[in-house]
Automatic annotation (TrEMBL), chain A:
Pfam families linked to this entry: BPD_transp_1
Keyword Transport found: yes
Gene3D superfamilies assigned: MetI-like
PANTHER family hit by this protein: ABC TRANSPORTER PERMEASE PROTEIN, INNER MEMBRANE ABC TRANSPORTER PERMEASE PROTEIN YCJO
Name of protein: Sugar ABC transporter permease
Keywords tagged on the record: Cell membrane, Membrane, Transmembrane, Transmembrane helix, Transport
Domain ABC transmembrane type-1 stretches: 72-284
TM regions (residue ranges): 14-34, 74-96, 117-137, 157-182, 209-228, 266-285
Localization in the cell: Cell membrane
Species for this entry: Sporosarcina quadrami
Membrane topology label: Multi-pass membrane protein
Family: Belongs to the binding-protein-dependent transport system permease family.
CDD domains with a match to the protein in the record: TM_PBP2 (cd06261)
TrEMBL record, chain B:
Keyword Cell membrane annotated: yes
Molecular-function GO term, any one: ATP binding
Secretion signal, residue range per the UniProt entry: none
Name this protein carries in UniProt: ABC transporter ATP-binding protein
Domain of life: Bacteria
Membrane-traversing stretches: none
Keyword line: ATP-binding, Cell membrane, Membrane, Nucleotide-binding, Translocase, Transport
CDD domains from the UniProt entry: ABC_MalK_N
């Protein structure tokens, strides 16, 4: 008994050290995840208690609801607008900022600045810039005597406008991660390729990008997940409008649950969101990891 | 100044094959005991079992007179120096040295005094306030040493402490560690893969191979009388030359690698087996031929490589399927491709059993004596 | 790397142009925050005078000082909470041997795949049942455990030579003391990274405070901004922008100071 007690000291300590995390994860992640799945099969009362078991009816309702289909479409479109462009821009800036030049620190700070600006603050700034009468964008258009655009008020333009502002908001974080990845690349690789007489673009294609692929892989996954989780800018810029053109999935969940008090269907949407993100993550791992070059 | 005793100690992971087995050895108080062997032979594992960092899965470990199998490392009354020194990067040299004392709640004043003392002994006095990263490799090594000394434990374990130093510093630290060990009378258990370290430092050395003891003994005895071909080639540089050999009863000759015939004295021939043997000879026991050399002791070689080291010359040639080396003192003008006569005597060879590798015949004692010896040994 | 002068000029040109574009919205907001209504309507870029009128107005119309303080308390608490909870867990994963370690670690990592928004409905009810609406603990406690943070610290702890652990064992250091006196000080850089990251993300948090603050008592600045924006929008953009500038200054400062650290630390966590 005493040997067992002594030998298990590591295990007992581990329990103690892991307990805070385990309790918090259980209460605020695992339990609510199962609860969400559970609720998605029910109609609920005002207090979110399961009232009537409706089986898959909530899901059937979602599939037949033009509102939800529209929201899914908008979300996918939004992801396609923001992620590729956002990452290419961040990569471009990071490549520029990775040159060893005087004052480069200043430029790095500029590029990363948007990471320090909250979604709420950014949204308010962009809300002003998109303002049809006094905003900067329409003033620019009028300088070039182009037709004015109603940006956030036009169903054709609203999603794109939100996407533009979102690309800007996420730029700082992507930039920092990619720059970090670039700086982890061993300098000797470049030196040896320069001895071989490789040009800039050859080096970019054959050394930088392959060596950067783990970082790119990471930032692509994070960006995709972030894009699916967009909420703040919608709440401030458009409130899902006009005519639901920017009703992205998280905003839709929020409205369904906390404005319409339809916790059952909201939970069903949340489950859909969970599944989408799960698939994205797994696909990312399966598809990209094969091609990613790890050191 | 404590005895360390290992009785039938073995180690296995997940109840699989033993990585170490049947270790029986007693390390005497105040002894400098070296564990040597190629990498992966289990020497570090053995040291870590003595330290209490690895569990002992079989047998008994005694430290002093107490069974220590289940004691935690800090209860075993020992200190340890690691290969990478294991200095705390966030602490100054002084704090590193006194780390263990602080844990034992020694008074600060006392701690400082001891740190100063040890630092003076190791020439670290000017560096007490520096961080490890501001020190050279040799200085870090000294700090690790100081930390071990200051703990005043009767037993000190060292795991390849010199392998990260350059050759010159290593030679210097060898004698310094030896000096300190003698001065303090610590029982030292020292792990290394470097046979030169083992030979020069150890009172006794233990050679481990694949988790088994090959031989334990005084360095010079192991050099002269290796217990098996593995030890023969592991200790000594260049290693002992080996060749397969058979005894030709008709002519009373040993046939080495199918090429060399070496006459066997009458009184020895009876002791040789009729099966295959392995014959070994140290490179320095292959001599140049002189006018007095008996014709039957000479064999002819074709030189395949030459290294002139200034005070000695080493050249290679082929016997059977083996490459042999001979070491002649002084400088010799030898070129690759030269036909060279070499002298080999039966008394200088070691003979091992072809199957078990067991030593069947020792060499004679080659040691010289100073004739006008006045100093007491 | 050596490069020719024309190449250098070209890169500087790109750097200046693009970084100016990136930073422009912030600069623009800063300028607007000093403008009067008519100036804004005229579409100027530089204000006539740098008067702090908008700033005094924003502080008088909103309990902005309270909100700032709330945000600070909440962000600092989450930061400290995360550092404690994550470092304890990371320590257990690296330095303790126990059965099921890999499984529990996998469980931790799997939480990264669960979007926080998918669990928010039951969480809101949990907070309500705990009676944590409009409390600091409601805003902070759910975020103390963080798989990303545990992972980041674990990566750093793994780089600590195991001999350091063994040397401490031989010296007789207890597990907690080794954690406290060796592991944490040695991992200072990762702790700073995680701390800055935790503070930034919490300061910028939007949806959760929106859900569980129903009055001004613990409301954070982000929700204050939303409030300000919906009250003032048509009339006084200058005041709104003054609010924006006040809200972003602490995090921008933190970012400028810790940019290098964050970039190194986060990319370390990103790569296994």
């Amino acid at each position: 008994m005493s040997t067992f007690w002594r030998k298990s000291v590591d295990a007992r300590t581990a329990v103690l050290y892991l307990l805070p995390s385990i309790i918090l994860f259980s209460v605020f992640i695992f339990y609510p995840m199962f609860r969400t799945i559970y609720l998605s099969f029910f109609l609920t009362d005002q207090n979110g208690n399961a009232a009537i078991n409706v089986g898959f009816e909530n899901y059937q309702y979602l599939l037949s609801s033009s509102e939800f289909i529209n929201s899914t479409k908008a979300t996918v479109l939004f992801v396609l607008y923001t992620v590729p462009i956002g990452i290419v821009l961040a990569l471009f800036f990071a490549l520029l900022a990775n040159e060893k030049l005087k004052g480069i620190g200043f430029f790095r700070t500029m590029y990363s600045s948007t990471m320090g600006i909250s979604v709420a603050a950014s949204s308010v700034i962009w809300l002003f810039m998109f303002n049809p009468s006094i905003g900067m964008f329409n003033r620019l258009l009028s300088v070039f005597s182009l037709p004015q655009i109603q940006w956030l008020l036009d169903p054709e333009w609203a999603l794109l406008s939100v996407a533009i502002s979102t690309i800007w908001m996420n730029l700082g974080f992507s930039f920092l991660i990619i720059l970090g990845g670039l700086q982890n690349i061993d300098e000797h690789l470049y030196e040896s390729s320069r001895i071989d007489g490789a040009g800039y673009f050859y080096r970019l294609r054959r050394i930088t990008l392959p060596m950067l692929s783990p970082t790119l892989f990471f930032i692509i996954t994070i960006s995709l997940i972030n894009a699916f989780q967009t909420f703040g800018q919608i709440d401030i810029l458009t409130k899902g409008g006009p005519s639901q053109s920017t009703n992205l999935i998280v905003y839709s969940i929020y409205r369904e649950a906390f404005i319409n008090y339809q916790f059952g269907t909201a939970s069903a949407q949340a489950v859909v969101l969970f599944v989408i993100i799960l698939i994205v993550t797994i696909l990312q791992f399966k598809l990209v990891e094969k091609k990613v070059h790890y050191q | 100044m404590k005895r360390v005793e290992l009785i039938d100690v073995s180690k296995s992971y997940d109840k699989q094959v033993d990585v170490i087995s049947n270790i029986n050895v007693t390390i005497e108080p105040g002894e400098f005991f070296v564990l040597v062997g190629p990498s992966g032979c289990g020497k570090s594992t053995m040291l870590r079992m003595i330290a209490g960092l690895e569990e002992i899965t079989g047998g008994t470990l005694k430290i002093g007179d107490k069974v220590a199998n289940n004691l935690t490392p800090d209860k075993r009354d020992l200190s340890m120096v690691f290969q990478n020194y294991a200095l705390y990067p966030h602490l100054s040299v002084q704090q590193n040295i006194t780390f263990g004392l602080d844990v034992k709640r020694m008074k600060k004043e006392e701690q400082r005094r001891k740190a100063k003392e040890v630092a003076a002994m190791l020439g670290l006095s000017d560096y007490l306030d520096r961080k490890p990263r501001e020190l050279s490799g040799g200085q870090r090594q000294r700090v690790a040493l100081a930390r071990s000394i200051v703990s005043e434990t009767p037993i000190c374990l060292m795991d390849e402490p010199l392998s990260n130093l350059d050759a010159k510093l290593r030679a210097h630290m060898r004698s310094e560690i030896r000096r300190i060990q003698r001065q303090l009378g610590i029982t030292m258990i020292y792990v290394t893969h470097d046979q030169v370290e083992a030979m020069t430092m150890g009172d006794r050395i233990m050679i481990l191979h694949e988790g088994k003891i090959q031989q334990v003994g005084k360095p010079i005895d192991i050099y002269n009388y290796p217990a098996n071909p593995f030890v023969a080639t592991f200790i000594g540089s260049p290693p002992m030359n080996l060749a397969k050999a058979e005894f030709d009863k008709a002519t009373s000759e040993l046939v080495l690698g199918g090429e060399i015939r070496l006459p066997v004295p009458m009184d020895e021939s009876g002791k040789l087996p009729t099966t295959t043997m392995t014959v070994g000879i140290r490179p320095e026991n292959l001599y140049p031929v002189t006018p007095e050399t008996k014709a039957e002791d000479i064999f002819h070689t074709t030189v395949t490589n030459v290294e002139i080291l200034g005070n000695e010359t080493v050249f290679s040639f082929t016997i059977g399927e083996e490459e042999w080396m001979a070491k002649w003192s002084g400088q010799w003008h030898i070129d690759i491709g030269d036909q060279l006569p070499v002298r080999m005597e039966f008394e200088s060879i070691s003979i091992f059993d072809g199957q078990s590798g067991e030593l069947l015949k020792r060499t004679v004692d080659h040691g010289n004596y100073v004739t006008t010896k006045e100093v007491q040994a | 790397m050596k490069m020719g002068l024309p190449q250098k000029i070209w890169i500087y040109f790109l750097l200046i142009l693009t970084s100016a574009l990136v930073f422009f919205p912030v600069l623009y907001a800063f300028m607007i925050s000093f403008m009067t209504g008519p100036e804004i309507i005229q579409g100027k870029f530089f204000p006539q005078t740098f008067s702090f009128e908008n700033y005094t107005k924003v502080f008088s119309r909103l309990p902005l000082m309270n909100y700032l303080l709330n945000s600070f308390i909440v962000s600092a608490s989450v930061m400290i909470g995360q550092l404690i909870v994550c470092s304890l867990a990371a320590y257990a994963f690296v330095f303790l041997k126990f059965k099921g370690r890999d499984f529990i670690f996998f469980l931790f990592i799997s939480t990264m795949m669960i979007p926080w928004e998918a669990t928010m409905i039951p969480n809101v009810f949990t907070i309500r049942n705990l009676d944590w609406y409009n409390t600091y603990q409601g805003l902070t406690v759910p975020f103390f455990a963080l798989a990303f943070g545990t992972f980041l610290l674990r990566q750093h702890f793994l780089t600590i030579p195991k001999e350091l652990h063994e040397a401490s064992q031989i010296a007789g250091l207890s597990r907690f003391k080794f954690f406290w006196k060796v592991v944490l000080p040695v991992s200072k850089t990762s702790l700073v990274t995680l701390g800055a990251y935790g503070f930034l993300t919490t300061w910028n948090m939007y949806l959760w405070p929106l859900l569980i603050t129903t009055n001004q008592s613990v409301r954070t600045v982000q929700i204050g901004l939303k409030q300000l924006q919906s009250q003032e929008i048509a009339t006084e953009w200058g005041v709104v922008m003054a609010g924006v500038i006040v809200v972003i200054i602490p995090t921008l400062l933190l970012l400028f100071l810790g940019q290098k650290q964050l970039q190194k630390g986060l990319s370390k966590g990103a790569l296994k």
